[in-house]
Amino acid sequence: MGAPQLILASASPRRRELIARLGIEPVRTGGADIDETPHKAELPRLYAQRMAREKAEAAADSNAFVLAGDTVVACGRRILPKADDEATARQCLTLLSGRRHRVLSAIALRAPDGTLRERLSETQVRFKRLSPEEREAYLATGEWHGKAGGYAIQGYAEGLIAWIEGSHSGVVGLPLFETRALLKAAGFSLG
Questions:
Q1: pLDDT digits (tens, 9 = 90+) for 148-171
Q2: Of 127, 143, 39, which is closest to residue 75 (Cα–Cα)?
Q3: What is the set of domains in the chain, with CATH numbers?
Q4: What pLDDT, on a 0 to 100 scale, did the predictor assign at position 1?
Q5: Are the beta carbons of 101 and 126 closer than 8 angstroms?
Q6: I need a labelling partner for 168 at 20 to 30 A (CA). Which of 15, 133, 162, 175 fits?
Q7: Are 70 and 128 in contact (CB under 8 A)?
Q8: Is pLDDT of 100 > 90?
Q9: How many beta carbons lie within 10 A of that of residue 65, not counting itself?
């Protein structure tokens, strides 16, 4: 039997693209079927970590490493939703306009022996103050659909970001520096 393989416990095409930047082609990808409802008064950091952990455990496989992640956009102690409709995206963008917010990207790696390792990337992001026209033009792109906080930094929204401090790939959905370190610590061969 060869070296253990990697399962990416995510249906996100962005996470698959990002993991490929580390030279890794997962043997399988797919979202974990878990309840993603935040607990009452759960802080954004703890929520992101719990989600990554639960996704990794839900996809457990004794023949492969399982990598799972969760990205949370937080404004203060508030967890912003994934925007499934334009009204939600508009609310998120209105809240984030001209303000600093945090993007917490948690990752969990479950080894074939059941050992679980975790890392968290925290990135500060600030949107420029958006005019109503800029906000509506961004909404018209549709790229906000399904995105935490109602925006995708890897698309048109990048031109609306005044500054970022931290991991760009973490905001996209998988912090590559932390992921690489986690894989190396677990003994996963990165070639």
A1: 999 999 999 999 999 999 999 999
A2: 127
A3: 5-185 (3.90.950.10)
A4: 45
A5: yes
A6: 133
A7: no
A8: yes
A9: 26
Model confidence at 3, in pLDDT bands (50, 70, 90)? low
d(Cα 119, Cα 106) in Å, to the nearest integer? 6
What are the residues facing 75 on neighbouring strands? Answer: 78
Q: Which two tokens mark 133?
A: 């026209």
Collect all residues with Cβ–Cβ distance below 8 Å to 105 and sequence separation of at least 6.
48, 69, 70, 71, 72, 120, 121, 122, 123, 167, 170, 171, 173, 174, 175, 178
Residue 191 has pLDDT above 70, yes or no: no
Tokens linked to 53? 């952990």
- DSSP string covering the chain: --S-EEEE----HHHHHHHHTTT---SEE-------PPPTT--HHHHHHHHHHHHHHHT--TTEEEEEEEEEEEETTEEPPB--SHHHHHHHHHHHTT-EEEEEEEEEEE-TTS-EEEEEEEEEEEEPPPPHHHHHHHHHH-TTTT-BTT--TTTGGGGGEEEEES-HHHHHT--HHHHHHHHHHTT----
